Amino acid sequence: MWFFGFSTANPKHLWIIAAILFVIFLTILFRRLAFHLDQASTTKEEELKKERKRNFEERFSCGGLVRTYSFEELKMATKDFSIRIGVGATSFVYLAQLSDGRYGAVKRVMPERRGSKKIFLDEVSVLLRLSHPNLVGMMGFCLDKGEQLLLLDYVPNKSLFERMHTHRGQTLGILSWSNRLSIALDIANALNYLHSEADPPVIHRDLKSSNVLLIDNNHAKLGDFGLCKLGHDPTTHTPSVVKGSFGYTDTNYLKTGQVTTKSDVYSYGVLLLELITGLKSVQGSVTLAEWTEEWRKTKKVEVMVGMLDPKLNGDANIDQLISLVDIANSALVENYKRRPTMSEIVDRLVSSVEIFKIEIVV
């Protein structure tokens, strides 16, 4: 009998055949062992991924105040993302109605709008640190099926931009002078909280009227933290890619790439000008700050009054106007170190309200 080309009749060949069979056996054994080790490694890796995700969810559960949602839950709540109520820097925002009847706003980060998981996780981690009545809060989030979704407080009356600069907004009536002052104070309080009370401080980097959401005519919340940055000592900060919106972005930040809390102060100055004039942050090819520079830096009250939004029909407190223009001028100075802090701005606004008896509805 022949086996592997060797005759089994020859005793010497039996040793060779046995050796060949032993090698074959070891080869099969090692292959099976390698397969099982590979399977075990893959399973362990998957388990580690799941564990990291569980740890992330538990870490960000915030004592039950913020919860995680499945993609299917938020898809159902938004009726398959059918009612778009806003557009963010990296996202679309949809109206959602939860199973318990509450309304929310689902921010869906979109890769085609340069959204990324890093931006999403940065925003989640920042929102979990914050709690203030004038900031849009987070109700939950979703990291499921490749989606990155935030469930945020629903603020029903659209944005300040829509109210002031769109036809639909105009049909809801004109924001009065006292309305505008109250909104300005709310956003100043929000920024003051971010800069002075949050730990670490937070630089919003994208303050603009479309990110100011109206609770009603008198009160507002600041939203969209997709571009925010944790505060730091500007003297040790390495310049970064400039983020923000043209017309609102700090001129010093544009030149140096160094962002500080005073960059938000500059943007706030532009927002004040927007509330005073009723104009958008960009006028043709120039910014509102440039467009109004001659009027707002004048010492002539009658010229300053000419800045007022015509839709107000002159119904504004002139002393209050002078005070707001002065705050805007100080916020817009080129040297960021000379700009006031948001805490100082809040104090000046509150003082103006008390001195000039401008009623703020609470």
TrEMBL record:
Gene3D superfamilies: Phosphorylase Kinase, domain 1, Transferase(Phosphotransferase) domain 1. GO terms for molecular function: ATP binding; protein serine/threonine kinase activity. Pfam families: Pkinase. This is non-specific serine/threonine protein kinase. It is an enzyme of class 2 (transferase). It is a single-pass membrane protein. It catalyses: L-threonyl-[protein] + ATP = O-phospho-L-threonyl-[protein] + ADP + H(+); L-seryl-[protein] + ATP = O-phospho-L-seryl-[protein] + ADP + H(+). InterPro entries: Kinase-like_dom_sf, PERK1-13-like, Prot_kinase_dom, Ser/Thr_kinase_AS. Its EC number is 2.7.11.1. Residues 79-356 form the Protein kinase domain. It is found in: Cell membrane. PANTHER family: PROLINE-RICH RECEPTOR-LIKE PROTEIN KINASE PERK4, PROTEIN KINASE DOMAIN-CONTAINING PROTEIN. Keywords: ATP-binding, Kinase, Membrane, Nucleotide-binding, Serine/threonine-protein kinase, Transferase, Transmembrane, Transmembrane helix. The chain crosses the membrane at residues 12-30. One of its GO terms (cellular component) is plasma membrane. It comes from the Eukaryota.
